[in-house]
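MarR family transcriptional regulator
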Amino acid sequence: MAAADGCERSGLYFLSVAHRVREKVDQRMSAAGLSLSRTKVLQVLAQHGALHQVELSEALGQAPRSVTQIVEALERAGLVTRTNDLEDRRRKTVSLTTTGQAALATAEQAGKQILQQFFGSLDTHQLAQLETLLTLIDTVATNTD
């Protein structure tokens, strides 16, 4: 029973720390001009090129409606364009603009700086241990229904 309590305590602590780190990264990136969620959309577009909104939703693992709201905001800001599909006018193709590429670079730099601040105090061995542990947890989480 004590081991189970330790697993639960460690798991809850991990979730708390992960949430705090994500919030801080999002705050720093938002201060640089893009939230973490908007940055992720731009990163997918930068990596894959223009995508239909459904494909973008699938690549992000998010509900289409959530992605549509983000894409609309990015379009208003001039960071992406949406065009009608020639074969199916209901489908929209989302493309990264030059302004979007610049905003993405700025946001990624801000994210990199805050992560360096958090994890830069760990030595090479500690970082390797952390990565090993996170990989183990991720493997279990990926294979659990």
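thats it. The mean pLDDT is 93. The first strand starts at residue 51 and ends at 52. bye
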